[in-house]
Design a protein that fits this description.
Layout (H helix, E strand, L loop, with lengths): L1 E7 L7 H6 L6 H8 L9 H9 L6 E4 L10 H9 L3 E6 L6 H16 L5 E4 L6 H9 L4 E2 L4 H4 L5 E3 L3 E3 L2 E4 H7 L4 H17 L4 E5 L13 H10 L3 E3 L1 H9 L6
Amino acid sequence: MYIVLTHDVDSIKRPLRHVLSRWRRFTISDLIRHIFHIDNLYNNFDELISIEDSVGSRSTVFIPVQLFSIDEIKDKLKTMIREGWEIQLHYVYEPIQYEALFKMQKSYLESELDIKVQGVRVHNLIINDSILKMFEKEGIIYDTTYRAEALNTYSPLYIHKKIIELPIAVMDADLFGRLHMSEEKALRYIFKKLENAKEKNEKIFVILFHQEALRMKGGRIYSDLVKMLYERGYELVRCIDIVNRVLKGEIKV
């Protein structure tokens, strides 16, 4: 079974009042560094790179173009692309003229980073048949917006004819925001879910941790999680690695 590491980037900075109103999420030392502008607790790309580089892995990072200006992180993203990380579109859906807005977001990310957008995860996990039909029309190869529970599988599958879907197995926002787990319980839950998936001979297990949460309570377990997965012998891959294996017939769907 392959472990697919993914990240959504919903923000890269927040006003000080926002941070202070949520101070319990952070360590005191990190909070002090943020208050005195030594650090930015919502820009954790270096943390992400360090964690994954420590075990020789790479992940897929989904970047929006509407939630903030990507100019502040464009150079960092280009470096990540050169070093093997996959950057794809975190599509922000709006119901009015959504096809035009998708084209705009896709073309802008492609032009800014000199990439071809092949995969998408929709912001807030909004997905329906019309969106998938649009993805197919616009040449998107894969989507990873559905939770595994919605499709009753962790494995890749074709959805809406030509779109390869990579279902999300676990997401940090579900673990800590919806299920209100402790960090210890979340790790146990993830590995229990992973064992259940292995018993069912599932082919992949997609993990989603938000970039801005990597130093927050909850999200900071990502470092331990990656090390534990590596030590247990799992192969840690990007979305595109799985998609290419599907297209080559190495993973049957």
